[in-house]
Every structure is written in structure tokens, then in C-alpha cells.
Amino acid sequence: MKEMIKDWKHIFKLDPDRQMTDDTLEAVCLSGSDAIMIGGSSGITYENTVDLLSRVRRYELPCVQEVSDLTAVVPGFDLYMIPMVLNTDHSRWITGLHQAAIEEYGYMIPWELLVPEGYIVLNPDSTVAKLTEANTDLEESSVTAYAQVADKLMNLPIVYVEYSGAFGDMAIVKEARQAISNAQLFYGGGICDEVTAREAAGVSDTIIVGNILYRDLKAALSTVSAVKSE
Amino acid sequence: MKEMIKDWKHIFKLDPDRQMTDDTLEAVCLSGSDAIMIGGSSGITYENTVDLLSRVRRYELPCVQEVSDLTAVVPGFDLYMIPMVLNTDHSRWITGLHQAAIEEYGYMIPWELLVPEGYIVLNPDSTVAKLTEANTDLEESSVTAYAQVADKLMNLPIVYVEYSGAFGDMAIVKEARQAISNAQLFYGGGICDEVTAREAAGVSDTIIVGNILYRDLKAALSTVSAVKSE
Asked: Which parts of the sequence bind sn-glycerol 1-phosphate (chains A, B) (predicted)?
């Protein structure tokens, strides 16, 4: 089951806390994107998540949840992506909350569906950076070293370079990807058209496209063909 | 190379900061123990480590370094064990120091020889607990959850339950071991004779015997046969 992510080049990330019409959702789900990821940094509830999942389930593409709040975990997703934020001083974002969650719900956790993501949070203005007090002011070599911790020490299947809200420094992403051996590099942040999609896809394994969906659907959909035609 | 640890049931841990005569070292190295681990929490230098390594190298058993101080890393060990302390609030002990080390020395790191250990530090009076400000006051279920973070999320090859200086609660160790699937459970702390060795070996995959070597050699050597005769 987890192996399916290896083929994913493009993911649309939907925020349950934001509105999307049925027509838009249909266009997104039939766009040719490889998967839908449902999640966000704030306002995520069980209700809005289950509602969005049931709407996405009308379509055939895989749908995964990125878990940020335990009370919003909904059964029935294909996979559960588990962020572990690496560039923070507070261990709760790396392993602490995970330990607490496992202690409370361990007996009902579908381990075979869990995909841990080694997050490197790089936009200081993003909600997740503020929440985790991430050390975002990092040199290329620092980001690369975090990627190697995730890949070579923690054996995480995904290294997620996250610029949420801004288009990142592609040189940083490129170097990080070159330094890892087994993990898949996810890039997210500021992809808003064909050009940025192609640029990000050139230095990562998988691009995640989110915010632009809520601002310019046509531009968002163009990111799929940009990647797929590579 | 890393696979060799899977067969290890007994390890003697030697502290480079403590004296050991040639006769004692010979008895330790010919005891039938599976490996020598060199390391400690304080007073470890390049000089005392290289000295001890060269003395152990006269014998055939594998010799690994447990890395606690970068300035004391010595080339020529069979493997390098990399502690990642899980039950602390400070991310530097989980991934932070590792990231800094990789950033500085990444180009010369022999990745294929690195074995990360997910440490759960449980004796509040131990040097390592004080240094890392470990949260040692944990229920069985909390320790188990940390073990599962190491095993199932971080995919670490070793979960190391560490009571350094005291003999731990074997019920805790047993539950942690039963909850993990792939990782090997190392137990260390307070093993001082055949009885404690056998008890610890009954609930773990590998026991680590250290301090008693410096107090009662005969008792220390008896821990090998206690494990091997199982």
C-alpha cells in the first residue's frame, strides 16, 4: 500500500477548512494528479475532514490524510501521512506528539498505512513554522544535513521540503534531493503555474500544489500537465 | 556489516575514561561476549578512545564505538552506534546534534557503518539522563510508545532501554520488546551477575554489561555464560 507513493509526481493538497464547489472538486480529482492529500495547519476538524473525504471518494484517485490533529483523524483514507518536523528545538514536533498519540491510540493504529514524513519547514511566515518555532534561517548545507538525518538515520520514506505560502529556493531543494538515497523528496510551497511546477518538479520527486487551487483553478490545473509532460 | 548486530546477545561496554589492565582486557575479550562497545557519557577523548581501540584490536571480536562526542570519533571501528535520545524535550538529543555533525562532516561519514539507536533513558540519576534532561518518570505504556516511535516511525534498527547504573523494571522492558516488530531491543543497566544477566536476557534481544567490569571481573564474566547457555 505504502509503495504507491513512489509513483506520485503530483499531489493536490486540499484544506478541509476552505470551501470548494463540487465542480471545482471534480476538475481537481479528474485533473490527472496522482493523489489528493487532505490536511492543513489550522481549523481542521473531524467533521470538515470526513465531509471532504466523502466528496473526494466519488473519484478514483488515492486520497491520503496528513495528520496534524488527532481529533481530526478519520478512518477510510488510503494512507496517513505523519509529519515529523526536523528543524525545531522542540522534540514534541519530532517525536513527542507521536509518542503521546501512540500511547493513547496505539491499539487501533493501522501501522501498515502510516507514512512518516521528515519535514523541513523553511518559510518563517507560514503557520507551521510559527507553530513549531522552526529554525528556518538555514544554509543549503544545513537543509541537506536535515534531509540526511531523515533519510539515513531515521530511514523515513519521505523528506518534505516545505515553503508553504512562498516559492522556495530551488538550489536548496536540489542539493537536498541529491544528498538522499532512499527517501522520496516532496516539495511544497508557492507552486502557482506551469513554470513553477516544472521548476519544482525538476529538483524533487513529487510536488504538492495547494493554495493556488483556491485562487486560480485554471493555473492550478496547469501544474498537472506541466509535471506529467516531463 | 550492520547485519552482524542481529546475532549479538551480549556486549561488553568499555569506558575509555576508566583504567583496565591488559590481563582484565584479555579476559573480557576472550570471554565469549559477542562484541565490545567503546563509549561513555563523560571524559571521552580521541586519545583514550584510540588507545582502548588499539588494545581491543589484538582480539578477534567486533569492536564498535558508541558516539557521544564528535571530537572522540576514531576511524577503524567495525560500526558506529549513534544514540538518538527519544524521551527528552530537547530536539538536539534526537536529531539536532546529528544534523550539525552531518553538516560539518557529512562528506567523510561512512554511512554504511552507522547504526542509529533509539535511546529510552530511564534512570534519573544517570549522567546521560541529567545531560539530556530525559523524562524518566514514565509508565510502561509510555516507554512502549517511545519504542514504537523508534521502531515503526523512525525505522531504527535498535531500541536501547537504558537504566545505566541501576537494574531496571523488567516488566517495562518486556512490554517494549513485545510491541516492536523490526528493531532489536538492547537492554543496559545494573547487570551485575548471572541472575540479572539471565533476567535481562529473557526480556531483550541483547544485553549490555558495563560497570560491573570495573568492580568485579568474575561476576562480569559470569554474565556471558548466563546468556550463552540460554
From this structure: 13, 160-165, 190, 210-211
Q: Which helix (H) or strand (E) holds A29?
A: helix A22-29
A111 touching chain B per CB within 8 A: yes
| Helix/strand number for chain B, H first, E second | 8, 8
- Distance (Å) of CA A77 to CA A21, A114, B138: 21, 11, 33
Q: Which of B29, B13, B9, B61 is nearest to B227 (CA)?
A: B9
Can you give the pLDDT at residue A106?
Answer: 81
Helix (H) or strand (E) holding A102: helix A96-105
Cα–Cα dist A35/A53, whole Å: 12
Instruction: Verify whether the Cβ–Cβ distance A84 to B179 is below 8 Å.
Output: no
Please state the pTM of the whole predicted model: 0.93
Cβ–Cβ gap B106/A179 under 8 Å = yes
Axis-axis angle for helices A170-179, A140-148 (nearest 10): 30
For the range A214-219, what are the long-range contacts, defined as Cβ-Cβ under 8 Å and sequence gap of 24 or more? A214/A15, A214/A18, A214/A20, A216/A192, A217/A24, A217/A27, A217/A28, A219/A192, A219/A193
For chain A, which residues score pLDDT lower than 70? Answer: 229-230
pLDDT, tens only, A88-104: 999 999 999 899 999 98
CA angle B16, B19, B21 (to 5 degrees): 120
**Do residues B164 and B127 make contact, with C-beta atoms less than 8 angstroms apart?**
yes
Residues on chain A touching B111 (C-beta within 8 angstroms): 152
